[in-house]
Amino acid sequence: RELNEELYVFEAVRPVVALTPLCTWMSAKEETMAYKVIAVRRLKMYEGRAKVTLDMGGLEELMLELHGTPFALQAKSMVKANYQFNTERFEGSIFCSELVAEAYQRVGLLTEKRLSSNFTPKDFSSNEDTKLLVDARFYDEVRIRDAPPGTPEGG
Question: pLDDT tens digit string along 75-92?
Answer without folding.
Answer: 888 889 988 999 988 878
